[in-house]
Amino acid sequence: MKLPYKFIEIVLLLTVFAFLVNSLDNGLVPTPPMGWMDWERFRCNINCDTDPDNCIGERLFMRTADRMVSDGYRDAGYVYVSIDDCWMSKERDSQLRLQADPKRFPHGIKWLADYMHQRGLKLGIYEDFGTKTCGGYPGSEFFLMSDAQTFADWDVDMLKLDGCNSHVDQMSVGYPTMGLFLNKTGRPILYSCSWPAYTGSGKKTDYKLIAKTCNMWRNYKDVEDSWDSVYGIIQFYAEDRDHFSSVAGPGNWNDPDQLIIGDYGLSWNQQKVQMGMWAIMASPLFMSVDLDKIDAQSRSLLLNRRVLAINQDKLGIQGTKLMSKAAALDVWTKPILPKGSLAVAVVNGNNKGVPRTAVIQLKELGLTNPSGYNVTETFDGTALGLFRPLDKLTVEANPSGIYLFTAVPINTGAKTIIV
Ligand SMILES: *[C@@H]1O[C@H](CO)[C@@H](O)[C@H](O)[C@H]1NC(C)=O
After folding, report:
1. Peptide bond preceding 176: is omega within 30 degrees of 0, i.e. cis?
2. SS3 string of 66-111?
3. Among 83, 85, 76, 64, which Cα is nearest to 34's?
4. Within the chain, which residue ranges are assigned CATH 2.60.40.1180?
5. pLDDT digits (tens, 9 = 90+) for 93-131
6. Which among 16, 17, 22, 26 is the best mutation to test ligand 1's pocket, defined by most ligand atoms within 8 Å of the CB?
7. CA distance 306 to 408
8. What is the pLDDT of residues 27-86, one digit of tens each?
9. Which of 116, 272, 296, 328 has its CA 20 to 30 A from that of 178?
10. CB 238 within 8 A of CB 254
11. pTM (2 decimals)?
């Protein structure tokens, strides 16, 4: 017998309402989660016969995990290894449970999770709130509870729940319902929702509600391997529609999508923009790159500890655009620790030939400590010296480039070097 959907929905609504009185509290992601996700770089390549190294199968995730350990990514904080769409069999098993494609994941997902855990890593997985995933695999609609339990039984650590093939107006019930079921498994599972990416166009999005349910959420188009894509995302975050930056904080993060650093589409300057801005925006950092083939320069950017420190700052404040110095020459700020400090990005979105200069008086940034600030360029760690509120800092941002620096107040008891 098929229960009428409306009836189920009402029952769930009541349950979920009770749940929503409390906010999401699974103790996860006090700082933005970091890891690797296959989607942007590897897509729905299921051709393991002729492309065994790059197809969506256990081999890709194992070789990536090995690299995350051996090449320093894990120790820098990148711990999630996340499987995106196309991992499943086209059919559920005889008990209607999800199953991995037996040929591409011969050991199954539980075994792969163990593989990650033995290496100090965590396993992420993908499903969809609708009847089918975006790639046409079985969706979780009508199976939310049992699928949550399946993931917990497999010792999965993260779920990305997409929104293809579903009704947008059911998401405000459906996503919290899955959150409830994940909670009821008793296993802490990072919950990544694609919900506002589907509701966001045109309508007002209730980010407060989303933050009560999800640890992170996509709110814009998929990233693709190009500067236009990355800069488009940055502009969406600059606009900050419905003030989504305000709900970010420990446990809850806006997700501008994966890092494409080390892939094909970005110049060195553009890669620095993505890394620097994902740090300023307190974004989850999920690399999507072939870690066996990445070049040393891109790797060093992903591992840059000063940039990562801005992203991982414990205040967890999402940086926002403060002002434009000229068209497509924007200044962004993010408060960081120690108290009174600021990370500042100057982004030149212009592709025309020459570097552009921004002159910034510290006071304009809200930096008013009369004793001044130690200012440090972030990518290279160059100390720029002591600046007081009325002093002017002149910085240059290359075409489709970024200048990133921190200002740390002196005389706050923080450890500083006065130059
Ligand atoms: C479930 O929710 C409760 C109440 O918010 C919370 O205390 C608990 O840690 C959550 N458990 C898991 C496994 O997420």
Report:
1. no
2. HHHHHCCHHHHCCCEEECCCCCECCCCCCCCCCCECCCCCCCHHHH
3. 76
4. 320-412
5. 999 999 999 999 999 999 999 999 999 999 999 999 999
6. 26
7. 13
8. 999 999 999 999 999 999 999 999 999 999 999 999 999 999 999 999 999 999 999 999
9. 116
10. no
11. 0.94
The one-letter amino acid at 366? G
Residue 3 has pLDDT above 50, yes or no: no
CA–CA distance, 268 with 343 (Å, rounded to integer): 21
Give the closest residue to 213 by CA, choosing from 285, 130, 129: 129
Please report the beta strands in 236-369, taking only residues with DSSP state E, as ranges in sequence order: 253-255, 285-287, 320-326, 329-336, 341-348, 356-361
Amino acid at 192: S
Give the residue carrying structure tokens 């997700």: 255
**Pairing between β-strand 216-218 and β-strand 158-162 as defined by DSSP bridges:** unpaired
Token couple for 405: 């620096």
Tokens of 300: 């060093």
Q: What's the confidence (pLDDT) of residue 203?
A: 76
Catalytic residue numbers, as ranges: 162, 222
**Looking up tokens 């009185």, which residue turns up?**
21
Strand partners, 373: 387, 409
Closest among 225, 221, 220, 193 to 209, alpha carbons compared? 193
- CATH code 3.20.20.70 region(s) in the chain: 5-311
CATH number belonging to domain 5-311: 3.20.20.70
| CATH code for residues 320-412 | 2.60.40.1180
CA 139 to chain centre: 23
Q: Which residues line ligand 1 (CB under 6 A)?
A: 22, 25-27, 183, 186-188
Q: Where are the beta strands (DSSP E) in 11-88?
A: 34-37, 80-82
Please give the distance, rounded to the nearest whole angstrom, from the Cα atom of residue 292 to the centre of ligand 1.
38
Distance between start and end Cα atoms, the chain: 76
Instruction: Say what the pLDDT of residue 1 is.
Output: 41
